[in-house]
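User: Continuing from earlier, I have the next pair ready.

Assistant: Great, send them over.

User: Here they are, in order.

Assistant: Folding the first of the pair now:
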Amino acid sequence: MLAFSRTILAAGLAAALLGGCGSKTPEQHLTAAKAMLAKNDGKSAAIELKSALQGDPSMAEARFLLGTTLLAQGDPISARIELEKARELGYPADQLVPPLARVLFIYGEFEKVISEFSRTQLDAPAAQADLMTTLAESALLLRRKEYAERFIQSALSLDAQQPRTLLVAANVAGYSGDYETALQRVSQVLADEPKNAKAWLAKAEFLRFGLGRDSESVAAYEQALSLDPKSVGANVGLSTFRLTKGELDAARKQVELMRKALPNHPQTRFVAALVALEAGDLKQANEESQAMLKLGPEDARFLHLAGAIAAQSGALLVAEKYLSQSLNQSADNPSARLLLAHTLLKAGEAGKALGALQPLMEQQGRSHAAMALAGQAYLMQGETGKAVEAFRKAVDLDPKDVRSKTALAVVDLEKGRIDEGLGALKGLAATDATGYTADLALISALLSRGDAAGALQAIAQLQQKQPKLADAPYLRGSIQMRAKQLPEARASFEQALQLAPGHFQAAVALAMLDVDAGHIADAIKRFDAMVEKDPRNARARMAAIELRVRAGASASEYEQLLQGAIKATPDAAEPRLALIRHRMAQGEVKQGLQAAQEGLSAIPDSAEMLLALGQVQALSGDVNQAVSTLNKLVAKMPNSPDPYLRMAEVHAQVKDLAAAAQDLRRAMVLAPRNVEVVGKLVAVQVALGKFSDARAALKDMEVAGVAKPVILAANGDVAYAQKAWPEAARQYRAALDLQRDDVTLAIKLHSVLLNAGQSADAARLASGWMAAHAQDAHFLSHLATRALQAGKLPEAESLYRQVLAIEPRHSAALNNLAWILMKTGKPGALEFAQRAVQVRDDVDDYWDTLAMVYLAGKEPARALEALRKAVQLNPAAHASRVHLAQALLDMGDKRGAKAELLKLDAVQLSGELKRLKDELQRQL
């Protein structure tokens, strides 16, 4: 009985004690928290605030104070959550907005800070000054100097004594190169607050980066950390300083101190990843970078570093993804742009590399590294004339090293001093033990002159010097492939893939060899193996899909394959873009629009998807919505001319050439030396008949620094449009004198001479060009086409065969030769027509030619299949539709033939096509 009473008593006491612990109301917890914050006891305050919120989750003030407390403790992740909840609960903007903007800034979401808060007006001057200061910091990190200056001036006008505002003003001055003013601002803060850790950090940065006073900067970093061990900037600054000086152990120790002080901060992971990368520990670097991206997925710096780590690890597709995302966040980052271009070149994506390099190539003070990479890209694409020009510009920009001598050698070549130029390049390539710019310039020069043997010798020398460089065997394989040395080419491409397993172009070349040998299954297996090794390799997956289509997959199977690719690689643009193109080609406009919208929803940061949506909207007839979409692309790429170029295409599509000209003028403001913009603006003005405006625009472009050959060629285009043949010839010849290996200029000049009736001059130009460029299939194809247009079928046949001897996969030559053989009744037409659609199965004209060959051979069923493919690819292919009616009639399907001809009732046909249509209607 006594024991029972004691138990009851104990239970009663426990209940009383527990009841006493829970008797504090949420308001009392909040009051206690405020008292602790007044004593700078943030840790205890956070406990009280969490207790208050357990009792009443809707306390906006508690949410706000917990958010600011966590922010001060270096936990921006939790701080953001609480501040966002406080905003949802309606906490006053004057208090809430400044710390919320700072949290977004810490996350690296600088664009979001500006887009969300740049128009915000707070009532309290101090709060508005705080917000303007954060906006200035964000603009500064986005390299938007004018915005930063405007924001900081606004902040200073509201509160010129606030230490943080003064420090950001110092950073703005430092960004402009005015380090004395920057240090004066910092000294102003330290005079009033000698224990201000942020001021010591700013001093360290200016001493280090602005004035190069390393020992003083280290002392300032250490002073900052002694005052505030949790200073993110001081920890990062001192760590990276140690790295740049090669003090790896000291950097590691600093990272460990940072982990203790800031365990959940994204910058801790950033520095740890940087140190691991420098130490060569790619596994650790990758782990740190992935953790870093979870904390700051939109930080351009984090994405840049993650891309660098992926590139170093050989994960080229991953590197491309991260670096592209980094540039979407901060387009003015030359380091990330160069690394992206280098990565794309390693992957064999020369075209994409040139796209990435374009902004750097257009800058007034162009980058030597950018031009050198551009030269490599042009060389990889086989554009040897452009490659030589790029290398020349590269060495001009860096005259102190061996590249300056390379430039002189290139100039010798351009001026016709072949022996001197090639001799100098060979000497430089032999003596430059580490670099290979001279080697690539030599290979480019030899190829442009048709010296395949000499180029192979130079490639062998390059490979001996740089045995791990995949470019050498890839280039050798390209030459061997042109020479029809197919086993040797295959071995070279295999070697390139062994050196760089992600070299996509080498894999494509091997697949082409497989297809040409009739082994399309082997080509598919090649890409399937790449996908098995890396399931997220969207390019390899797409290559396998396209090959399956070539092997006979139906339209519905193609759709299923693309859907599978999208499911496997949801963040890859290529499969989604292919699905959009496929549906539009099928005439499924609504479904194409749906695919574009779903693609943009899945990859909202993708400029490609936004562009695709705009193009589909334009094709569906909704021009206003297309322009609205492309205006969003302008907001995403404010410094790029590309959105305006695409808008011009949309306006041109609906015949609004005046609007297209306006778009192109806007593009010209952003990129006054962009050759594509120049060409399209002149073309539109010529189409409008505004020849004087076109010439005036060209004069403005010349003043802006557009290359003289481009101006001369464009003036030639204007004269050509006016059929002023002598003036056009004069302009083209002057441009060709400056760019002696530019085949496009040579073709234009040759055409003008023929149009002017100067056949002897045209013949001299042609023979001289081919003597200097014996392997120029492009010019030969032009000569063949002119012969074909003139009805000289034997001459055209001979020339097209010469083209195919140089480039066996020249699709236009295959197609046109098939047509000639069919017309002349010679054997081989079917073989060449089938080869043309194997090389390019997306050209309706090639399917039409194949169908005509089938019809000539009395195989209407096969012709019908090919013609359906042609009109599927291009519903406006009127010739194919007439031929389709002919095939249906040959099959006895009069109703089907009549239906196809009815679709052409509103179309004005002429010549042989009209005669054939009329004949078919008579038969019906």
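And the other member of the pair:
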Amino acid sequence: MSGKAVDKLTAKEAAAELERLAAEIARHDKLYYSKDAPEITDAEYDLLRRRNAAIEARFPSLAREDSPSTRVGAAPAEKFGKVRHAVAMLSLDNAFDAEDARAFVQRVQRFLNLNAPPEFTAEPKIDGLSASLRYESGKFVQGATRGDGREGEDVTANLRTIADIPHTVKGAPAVLEVRGEVYIEKAAFAKMNARLEAEGKQTYVNPRNSAAGALRQLDPKITAARPLRFFAHGWGEVSEPLAGSQYDAMRRLEKMGFPLAGLKRARNAEQLLSEYERIFESRARLAYEIDGVVYKVDNLALQQRLGFVSRSPRWAIAHKFAAEQQTTLLEGIDIQVGRTGALTPVGRLKPVFVGGVTVTNVTLHNPDYIAGVDNDGQPIRGGKDLRIGDTVVVQRAGDVIPQIVDVLLEKRPKGARKFHFPETCPVCGSRVARELEPGEAGAIARCTGGLNCPAQVVERLIHFVARRAMDIEGLGAKQIEEFHELGWVKEPADVFRIADHRGELMEREGYGEKSVTNLLASIEARREPEFARFLYALGIRDIGETTAGVIARRFESWDAFEAAVRAAAKARPGETYEVLARVAGLGDGARTALIEAAPALRAPRGDLLDEGEAPKIRGVSAKAWASLIDAFGSVPDAIAAVKAAAKEAPGDDYLELGRIDGVGPVAAGHLVDFFAEKHNTDALKRLLKEVTVKDQPRAATSSRVAGLTIVFTGALERMTRDEAKARATALGAKVAGSVSKNTNLVVAGPGAGSKLAEAEKLGIKVIDEDAWIKLSS
């Protein structure tokens, strides 16, 4: 991807990028897990997640609740029964080169505070469909897909048809869940496709898609007719430990009758990399498709200490194979309008097979990308622009998304057409605005139509009724699109008026008395939503589930929240302040110092162009003045801009909203923008006539540290600092890096210095490591 490096992103740019990534990854999740029709390779998908995680690590307050880092896969399909996984089926973080693999080993060693790396295992990563097999008293009783990691699809009958999966096992714990991959061997896949082609039927793109489609058939006889195989690679719930190490546990599963793809031990990073090279070299000779090598910490007690972070275990990583490139034609460029109005250009490609998948389109990000420059104005692809009709080089894997990495100018036809970015929305005709100044990473074009834009309305309505939002069962994307086209549902309030169309609905194909009754009952059951769920359902930019929860806990009632936001809207900054805020190189601290000093500032005489001639203000460096002069032309002009900005600076009510821990100025700004738009507030008023938002219940928890702000200082001897922080976070506490009046507890070990002194000065409770372990156990 040609986007700006993560360490150069501003908060606003980061928020825009996280929004784009969340939507794009969710779309690919649905294609991969629910429709078995991925458009990108696993490696490309992995790096989408990787960039998302890197941005969240730098801007933790901007992490969205719909962030890919909080979920795995996609929700189960409606046609199968649902299975709640007793132990979540998480995915793995990824390494893409030797340095990533070495860094993984170093992270593990550092987290555990070991003098040398622990032992690891290495095994091929099967390119198949994840499945979980549950055995009780030695009998296979239930099988499920991964689904979204917490809830999968019940495909027990289909899994019973796979010869590799034993129906009974000896020597197993009373409860045993075996995790692994369902796959099709390459030769069997080729034979099956040849038969389909001879019969004039559509062939499958790759073995993984074929295996996924076969396993998710409603008729087990169809599944049985497909040459499905199974490899075990781990376990979920067990009533007793299988062994003391990953290696021994897997060998025990192998003795029970579960096939393994191969497993070797390694003592350090270099041995892991040696095994990676061996497996990579043997890849073409293997009977099945693999897309990397999985490394795991061997000692299970150490695995438990390492624990998990978000959607992945700390003790394992997938080292992916490298990218593949092919050439094809750029046949056209379309514009997609997302839920928040973002206009994204998408290149239509002549279908090309790259990395095991047929690629038909590729995201082109923004006008700068098409022009051949990155968001800093630096050339990409050698500065070559993209034109319709160009021959392009497409890379899949190893980069964030399906990516055009080069343009073959020698093959550019005379009639190749330049692409002109639209000035009006292709869906509703509203004006298109770029939120940030040209050249910044967030040069995202947005439709200004809001809820008047059909593209945004439909996507927002789909979000509104989704399981993690209002959770209206039986009302999904298909129904929303249908009802919107009929004119029944044009805004959220209309969802609660669908009953007015009961008679018409009964006459439509696919709807009967029972289904309509159930749908209307589901809608009625959601007329009293919880505060946090309702706020999240509104689909306001950067207000994910987590942020919505923070806001709900802060204000407790909807009325109090709405009053605060309306007050903040009256105190929002004006355009001259926004101009000052966009000056590159001018940090928040310097801008605040300038605004505070503005009343006393006097512009010197003359056309002064040197920062050395600027007034001396505490907190405003010569470099900051240079940025101001570069933006406004001279010292007097810069001072005039500062004084004008000070008159339109944000008021306390606006700033207070952005200071809420867990919200931040970016999300606060989007809240204010939403409530400042009359279309939105009118729609909200109509919605609030249909529903009653319940006050946010105060969280109840058995954890004794939930809700506390904790600071760790000094050396810890029985666990590492990272382990202590991870335990505190898992128990609902917030870990801070410094002591303040908001700190509730300080855990102090030997060598504690200034933080301990500050805690004692403020009268904050201080405990030692033993007391912490007892408190958190």
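Worth noting for the second one:
Residues 419 and 524 are 48 Å apart (CA to CA). The first strand starts at residue 82 and ends at 84.
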